[in-house]
Fold:
Amino acid sequence: MIAALAFYFFAAILIASAVMVVSSRNPVHSVLFLILAFFNAAALFLIAGAEFLAMILVIVYVGAVAVLFLFVVMMLDIDFARLREGFQRYAPVGAVVGAILFLELLLVLGSWTFADQSAELRLSPNPGGDVTNAMAIGRILYTDYVYLFQASGLILLVAMIGAIVLTHRKSTASRRQNIGAQVSRSGSVLLEKVPSGAGIGTLGIRRPPVAEVEKPAVTHDAGHGGHH
Amino acid sequence: MDAFLASPIGILAITVAQTLALLVPVLLAVAYLTLAERKVLAAMQLRRGPNVVGPFGLLQPFADAIKMLMKETIIPSGANRFLFVLAPILLFMLAMIAWAVIPVQDGWAIADINVGILYLFAVSSLGVYGVIIAGWASNSKYAFLGALRSAAQMVSYEVSIGFVIVTVLLCVGSLNLSDIVRAQERVWFFIPLFPMFIIFFISALAETNRAPFDLPEGESELVAGFFVEYSSMSFALFFLGEYANMILMSALTTILFLGGWHPPMHMEPFTWIPGFVWFALKIALLLFVFIWVRATFPRYRYDQLMRLGWKVFLPFSLVWLILTAAVLKLAGWLPA
Structure:
């Protein structure tokens, strides 16, 4: 009873927030509604007993993907009045495309047949026994289908490398910090044992020993030769 | 009585009682952490710190809380009112709900769920929303810059935290937090996984926006960063949320590496002290290090922060993960 009520509650919020994602005027609000939709989907997973999938959904989609969405949407300066300008003109074309997609979906669903055990499998993510569903997913992904899993990982890797190659520009103007060279440069840092409570003042202000030649020659004025 | 406790209302009553029994000490700890930070910082800088309100300044947190409550709440006219108010509530709420799965002692977790560590990871990865929404809803460029920095910073360090957690999970063979602590009965994980412990602690500093990674609020360049427009109670919620997150990350470090409720040795004088006291003591030790770090190190520059996360921690934790997996496999120590 309570589970059914909770299911309808989360499902109703899920659908309502999904509608708000496409209909809200402010893109930041859209992304926030998308996050709400993810949360409710995670709750539905929890009700079905798939707690591992629920947590992964929150970690991956809400914790990482949606943050990047939000990041981009906040940074972009989109002029929505201009985006909406051609709405009347493009509406018929959009309606035709939508109708074709809808027909195709109907055709697919019409020829759909359910597997024999689908009814009892649907809401039982655990294979039975004391196997948790993290372990069950692990067995399927890493034992039964490990080669397919690796292949999909490689495809994603190629996509990532492609995106980096396409967008990476080697800039010659920026000056990089070479941390290794900086740390290994000796002589420019002075280590001093300062008595506790007395402070550096008792030692007098010291100047570091003369640095090596690679340091650009900057004229120090007398007051600033302190410790780093 | 037993029949009542087994009924839905009874279960609800027990859960509420357990929640209060956990959250009231946590909130008190948050209040006194603010005082402890000021006292420890003062001692490290040869000052006295707050010592006027109450004996040794012990009532200072309450004086601060009352002062915060009396201030006027200001909402900037250009702000998005709903999100502006939502952000601090969200941040504070996330810091609180994470405690639901923390096992304070053997069998003392409110919800001892199978995927406890994933739940904690999910909740800590949501913390960035409080910051980013606050920065955007304030409609101010300082707040927005702080929020952008914070989003990039928290997402970056989460990656290496994830690998550290996977390394620990390899040694345990379970996602349950109580099982993780039980696996450390003989040797705490910070001994075999010492580099991971250090990486996790530094990433926890970055994740909670603490010094030397407090760039989101860097007051010397961004005034106060993402909460520059907040005042009164909404500011207090950010403040308390940050400290609650510090305690939470210390608790997580304790569970993953310092053996949770286990005493240092299972022998006479140590076993007299109950487990939750050991747990609290370990958290207090880590919190002291949090404050110690703040008093010692200057703030990182932004590009160095990113370099540390992506070019140092990420490859190192990945290599250590593979190394751990190989050692466990070759030595036959993999948990079933």
Observations:
- The interface with chain B takes residues 2, 28, 32, 35, 51-52, 55-56, 58-59, 62-64, 67-68, 70-71, 74-75, 132, 134, 177, 179, 197 of chain A (CB under 8 Å).
